[in-house]
Amino acid sequence: MGHTLRHQSASVAGVCLMTLLASSCLSGLMTQAAKAQTASASTGATRHFTIAAQPLRTALHQYLEQSGVQVAYPTAAAGNVRAAAVTGNLTPQEALSRLLAGTGLTWRATGPNSVTLAKSAANITLGPIRVGGTVTHQNPTGPGVGYVATTTMSGTKTDTPITEIPNSIYVVTKQLMQDQQPQNVVEALRYTPGVYSESLGNYSNGSGLDGTNSGIKQRGFSTTSFVDGLALNSGSAGETAFIDRIEAVNGPASVMYGQTNPGGMIGISLKKPTDVPLHQVSLGFGSWGRYEATADVSDKITKSGNLRYRVAAMGVTSGTQVDHIDYHRVGVLPSLTWDIDPKTSLTLLGMYMYTPGNGTNYLQYPTCGTLIQDANCRRIPRNTFTGYKSWNEQGSKEAMFEYMFKHDFNKYISFSQTFRYENSHSEQNDVYSRIGITNSEVGVRPWSINSRSTTIGLDSRIYGKFSTGFLKHTWIVGSDFRQLEYMQNAFYDYTQTYTQNLYNPTMNTPVCVNIHSAACEVYGSTGPYNYFQEGVYFQDQIKWKGLSVLLGGREDWVNYNSNRYSVNNDNAAHTITKSSLVDAPEPQHAFTWRAGLIYNTRFGLAPYFSYSTSFVPQAGSTDYLGKPFSPLTGKQMEAGLKYKVPNKDILLTASAFRIDEDHYLISDLEHSGFSSDVGKVRSQGFEVSANTNVTKDLRLVASYTYTDIRFAKTNQTAQRVDVYGNSYGNAVSETGKVVPQMPRNMFSVFADYTVPTSFAKGLGINLGMRYVGSTYVDNVESFKTPSYILFDIGAHYDFGQAIPVLKGLKGQLAVSNLTNKYYVTSCDTSFCYTGQGRRLYGNLTYNW
């Protein structure tokens, strides 16, 4: 049965101004002796090149992607040079020579797959040049090259090499997403160090994510997503069809972003107009009746290319592995970039997304039948639907407007601004699992939620570079704010005790949530919620030779209130009263800071150390007495190594960390629906990772994560239970016990190989493996969910390599959980989340 949205309403309002693209920075310095001799570069087979006439820097980026040849060039000489158009089947040498025609530059080989540009009049290399595995300085918000991104905006809000930032940052590039074919951001993060993205199993089922990032944990803590640097409150970036890259900034990010947990934040970059034309359409199909179409078109509007557009669009209809829970969505993301003058640019983005079925599965299955499988607890099939088909309706409409503005006043001072307006409306009628009754029955609770939200965000900053003696500074001072207005009506049916048979569920039991009906017994709440946050921040990146020092601080102010009313319709005794449990607390504020240093050696190794703090207000949360909780405050120490192999697209990282967070909240076991402050939690561990383009045909990512997160100091106690939920023994202290639902060990590896032989020209294959360790189910280590290993495979075929008339056509196939393993991702003492079964997805993509 499909889901429907019964009341359709979404509006979009606009405002204007924008964000930042920082100035390019050099990834390295190198000089060449004048006596180097000219040689052949990258003596490979003929390839097809399609490179438009454009600025040399962007043309060389296209040349790298199409040839695999690394290019170093004189920074000053390439500044305002335009490259000639190159089209046709050519060797890399021929293509580069044509590209440089009329530029006054020539090339010479410096390795089997690398060249250096120099002025035609002299066979020497000029001044500082760009090197290091990428053709030009990478766009810090762009798709990356292969599986490697060398620069980032997320870490510092300035265009900075990852190897100059003293904390862990991992990038999911566009190429990695294309090879793995994730159907949402949660799946795209499966191979990211320090991130456990699917703790809630098939909960999202393809619906993407919102600002809560349900189920995603970084270093043991829940996380927050930011889109183009602003906090996300809707699903506007839940679709990989709209995304160029995803970044995981592990560790506290409050100095730059305000309210974030100490585990880190997820940074997402939406698609924006490209410097070179892009025309792509695709048709896809997959398991559970999935059919999908996408389009991505970008081109220049003016002849000079100073005005460019891009339109990304998608439509999908699909079932899920759970019966009667479907996923249907259409969306469009248009954008426009205007280079007003050489120092000023403006980018406008809009988004509209209609989701009449969001694919969310709110149902948990009992431990009996999932974690426990024996004669008394038969396995519960993953497709089991324990809701009511006649009641199950979910849907949403979301709209967004964004602008990004940048202006360079001079070489010392620049200004940028990003603004976003979001409006969303969602409705859902569903049931959630409540309590296990017998080995074959579960209690469920029907509910109905109607919500609307409006979010406004603005980030303004001035930044630049200057020198004081031998010290070079990259500085930034900024202010951001976010205002959220949220209206929710939530009603729960208490008319009767609803049960479902797990092996033969009833599909059409009537539900009663009409608060004006004498036949219904309805409890719930209604009313608005308002949240306002503002912060001012500063940062200085100080560089001396290979040493970089990072210093930053921020002051945050948060104010929120809720005028919710509790609803109690007790069989015709209809009452609505203002709840005293959600009255607004006093405004909260905090100062956070960070400091770190990293040293880049000439051979590519960069050791670092950093200290940072975090702050998150406990907005709207109270204990059972109505007392608001103190803000979450965290601190982290981190030390590590980063190694960028010289002249190679190979980035290796290793880090060790310790995080302490105060006022960590858990569910209050004695007062249902409330939370308890358990005191201090400590997370410590280490991560190692590799992102590599080993050759132009072989790409690989790999990582290992060790996370030990425990209750460090608490006065809470609890009784242990057995796997059947029976309590035993005396209450034990939670101090020193492992925090539940977070695996201690995770390991993953994924590789893609394009076969370079004429026998299978154009064919590529990939293989991935994911290991997730065991997790505890409660706060006193009663018992564990088991570890699991999953395998993913895929293949792609470029038809144009073998059949020239089909140039631009590519086929792809991806299979996750190849062995169709039945596993649980996390449990509490009564219920478990099951993981996704074998899923197949294939598509045909055409580029022209």
TrEMBL record:
Chief location bin: membrane
Entries under CDD domains matching the protein: ligand_gated_channel
Organism superkingdom: Bacteria
The protein's name in its UniProt record: TonB-dependent siderophore receptor
A Pfam short name: STN
UniProt membrane topology term: Multi-pass membrane protein
InterPro entries associated with the record: Beta-barrel_TonB, Beta-barrel_TonB_sf, Plug_dom, Plug_dom_sf, Secretin/TonB_short_N, TonB-dep_rcpt-like, TonB_sidphr_rcpt
Stated family: Belongs to the TonB-dependent receptor family.
Signal peptide: 1-36
Localization of this protein: Cell outer membrane
Secretin/TonB short N-terminal domain ranges (all copies): 69-120
Record's keyword terms, sorted: Cell outer membrane, Ion transport, Iron, Iron transport, Membrane, Receptor, Signal, TonB box, Transmembrane, Transmembrane beta strand, Transport
Annotated organism of origin: Komagataeibacter oboediens
UniProt-listed PANTHER family: FERRICHROME IRON RECEPTOR-RELATED, FERRICHROME OUTER MEMBRANE TRANSPORTER_PHAGE RECEPTOR
